[in-house]
């Protein structure tokens, strides 16, 4: 009978908390959206599954050795943790609080104490430390994105870089929104949190994760989920804004054929961009450096094997671990609070403002040039989300005029948006990091 | 609280300003690079593309002319 009771006390049903049930439901919902509705399945499947794994009661997959040890520890062990961390009480909550704020050497001492008592890091915690805390996974993905990007349309019409710049206004407007909510006492975000939330408006998953991991790791789960969900929702969010801000005649504007771009220009562009970053904004160097490296591998034509690996095999492998690691941040105690709701609302506002500013910038450029050389629909592609946003521009263009193919023209602002949000990320890291 | 708000405003002004400055510079540098490459760089592909495109057009014109000539010849022969 005792054995039966032991089994019962160790079971998931006995230990599960309400928050964990809710989070497992959230994980299942993400899986449903990914599998049934095809919302960014490559990311939401690993994130959703990771979220479920992270919330399995008693398994502690998403927790560090110390967190697991404190959860299971006897009072004697708690006492030794308290003495290592230099606090008097043995309340597990206080101990974890002290652990999270401790400096690196105390941190290591506590971890070693946990290891001595046969407690280890959970699997997802290890994935998180290797993939995200180190900054590696988002940067490797950025390299792959660079290797997939064709700068041809951008080089043929460099002015479209302005559209990519204008769309970044969504990022900074949202930062202001987040600190505004804090000033009004509705939410409680620090300036770092606000910056990390704003970058959702860049509509660029790896950039958002990279910035969040540096500026406010505790919000990473919510920020990543918001960023990827909204990227999947681009075909729903953008068209109403685009229709509202353009007239029928503007949507019908045909753009001139893009000129041919020589191979030499395509090779020189990533190098120029790299030099510009190195000279002006070294804080964006990790992101844009990897991006330029990937693009150079693609365009130089002598390392096709490396380029192929970074845009296929490597990016897939890293995506799996990145997704699971993001999922590990969906544990109930960190995800279920008002801040997550605030992040979701602010994220979609960031997206909307970015889209609107891209379109308005295109109209402004038409006014200044005194002609109708730019179809304002391509402005909305300035919020990265490659290539989804460009496809949306193309679709709306075809609706207005069935002979109007905007896809290649929209790819210009689209990749400009990637550069723009990486620059904005660098500025954020520089100013508030 | 006001401090936080002014920090946010500063971030917005500086951030947006910097993004625009950076991308404007990129536009200038890229345009210069493209001009230099078009002027001094090797451009075999540039010439190859139009000539390839020109071939079918020329062929079409030729065949039109040919048809006209043959028709005229036939007419003349029959009359």
Automatic annotation (TrEMBL), chain A:
Extract the PANTHER family matched here.
OXALOACETATE DECARBOXYLASE BETA CHAIN 2
Q: Catalyzes what?
A: oxaloacetate + 2 Na(+)(in) + H(+) = pyruvate + 2 Na(+)(out) + CO2
Q: Which cofactor does it need?
A: Na(+)
**Name the record gives this protein:** Oxaloacetate decarboxylase beta chain
Known EC number: 7.2.4.2
Tell me its family.
Belongs to the GcdB/MmdB/OadB family.
Q: Name one GO cellular component term.
A: plasma membrane
Cross-referenced InterPro entries: OadB_MmdB
Q: Which GO terms describe its molecular function?
A: decarboxylation-driven active transmembrane transporter activity; lyase activity
Species this protein is from: Neptunomonas antarctica
Q: Does the keyword Nucleus apply?
A: no
- How does the record say this protein sits in the membrane? Multi-pass membrane protein
**Transmembrane segments in this chain: where?**
12-35, 127-149, 161-182, 194-213, 219-246, 267-293, 343-362, 374-393, 405-429
Q: Where in the cell is it found?
A: Cell membrane
Record's keyword terms, sorted: Cell membrane, Ion transport, Membrane, Sodium, Sodium transport, Translocase, Transmembrane, Transmembrane helix, Transport
Identify the taxonomic lineage of the organism of origin. Bacteria, Pseudomonadati, Pseudomonadota, Gammaproteobacteria, Oceanospirillales
Tell me, what does this protein do in biology? Answer: Catalyzes the decarboxylation of oxaloacetate coupled to Na(+) translocation.
UniProtKB/TrEMBL annotation, chain B:
Q: Name one GO cellular component term.
A: plasma membrane
Localization, per the record, is: Cell membrane
Q: Chief location of this protein?
A: membrane
Q: Which UniProt keywords apply?
A: Cell membrane, Ion transport, Membrane, Sodium, Sodium transport, Translocase, Transmembrane, Transmembrane helix, Transport
* Domain of life (superkingdom): Bacteria
A single GO molecular-function term is:
sodium ion transmembrane transporter activity
Q: How does it sit in the membrane?
A: Single-pass membrane protein
Q: What is the scientific name of the source organism?
A: Neptunomonas antarctica
The entry's family comment says:
Belongs to the OadG family.
Q: What is this protein called?
A: Probable oxaloacetate decarboxylase gamma chain
In its keyword annotation, does this UniProt entry include Metal-binding?
A: no
Q: Which reaction does it catalyse?
A: oxaloacetate + 2 Na(+)(in) + H(+) = pyruvate + 2 Na(+)(out) + CO2
Q: What does this protein do?
A: Catalyzes the decarboxylation of oxaloacetate coupled to Na(+) translocation.
Subunit and partners: Heterotrimer of an alpha, a beta and a gamma subunit.
List the taxonomic lineage: Bacteria, Pseudomonadati, Pseudomonadota, Gammaproteobacteria, Oceanospirillales
Transmembrane regions listed in the UniProt entry: 12-38
Q: Which GO terms describe its biological process?
A: sodium ion export across plasma membrane
Enzyme Commission number, as recorded: 7.2.4.2
Entries under InterPro entries matching the protein: Na_pump_deCOase, OadG
Cofactor dependence is on: Na(+)
Instruction: Please give the NCBIfam families that the UniProt record associates with this protein.
Output: oadG_fam
Q: Which gene encodes it?
A: oadG
């Amino acid at each position: 009978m005792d054995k039966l009771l032991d089994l019962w006390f160790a079971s998931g049903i006995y230990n599960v908390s309400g928050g964990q049930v809710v989070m497992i439901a959230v994980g299942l919902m993400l899986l449903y959206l990914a599998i049934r509705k095809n919302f960014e399945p490559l990311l939401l499947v690993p994130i959703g599954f990771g979220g479920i794994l992270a919330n399995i009661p008693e398994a502690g997959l998403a927790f560090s050795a110390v967190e697991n040890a404190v959860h299971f520890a006897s009072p004697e062990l708690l006492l030794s943790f308290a003495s290592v961390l230099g606090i008097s009480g043995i309340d597990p909550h206080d101990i974890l609080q002290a652990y999270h704020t401790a400096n690196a050497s105390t941190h290591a001492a506590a971890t070693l104490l946990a290891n001595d008592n046969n407690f280890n890091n959970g699997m997802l915690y290890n994935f998180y430390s290797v993939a995200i805390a180190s900054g590696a996974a988002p940067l490797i993905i950025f390299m792959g994105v660079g290797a997939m990007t064709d700068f041809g349309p951008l080089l043929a019409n460099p002015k479209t870089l302005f559209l990519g710049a204008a769309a970044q206004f969504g990022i900074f407007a949202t930062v202001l929104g987040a600190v505004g909510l804090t000033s009004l006492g509705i939410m409680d975000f620090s300036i770092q949190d606000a910056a990390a939330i704003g970058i959702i408006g860049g509509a660029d998953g790896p950039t958002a994760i990279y910035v969040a991991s540096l500026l406010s790791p505790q919000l990473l789960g919510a920020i990543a989920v918001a960023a990827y969900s909204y990227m999947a929702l681009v075909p729903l969010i953008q068209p109403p804004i685009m229709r509202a801000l353009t007239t029928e005649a503007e949507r019908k504007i045909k753009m001139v054929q893009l000129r041919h771009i020589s191979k030499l220009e395509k090779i020189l562009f990533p190098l120029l961009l790299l030099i510009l970053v190195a000279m002006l904004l070294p804080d964006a160097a990790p992101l844009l450096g990897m991006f330029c490296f990937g693009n150079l591998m693609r365009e130089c034509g002598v390392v096709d094997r490396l380029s192929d690996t970074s845009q296929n095999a490597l990016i897939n492998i890293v995506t799996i671990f990145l997704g699971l690691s993001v999922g590990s941040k969906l544990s109930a105690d960190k995800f279920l609070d008002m801040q997550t709701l605030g992040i979701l609302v602010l994220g979609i506002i960031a997206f909307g403002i970015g889209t609107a500013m891209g379109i308005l910038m295109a109209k402004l450029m038409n006014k200044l040039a005194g002609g109708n050389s730019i179809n304002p629909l391509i402005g909305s592609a300035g919020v990265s989300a490659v290539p989804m946003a460009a496809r949306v521009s193309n679709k709306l263009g075809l609706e207005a005029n069935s002979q109007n193919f905007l896809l290649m023209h929209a790819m210009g602002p689209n990749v400009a948006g990637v550069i723009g949000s990486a620059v904005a990320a660098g500025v954020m890291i520089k100013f508030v990091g | 609280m006001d401090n936080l708000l002014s920090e946010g405003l500063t971030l917005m002004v500086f951030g947006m300003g910097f993004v625009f400055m950076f991308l404007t510079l990129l536009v200038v540098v890229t345009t210069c690079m493209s001009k230099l490459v078009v002027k001094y760089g090797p451009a075999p592909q540039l010439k190859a593309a139009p000539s390839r495109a020109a071939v079918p057009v020329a062929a079409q014109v030729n065949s039109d002319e040919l048809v006209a000539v043959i028709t005229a010849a036939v007419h003349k022969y029959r009359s």
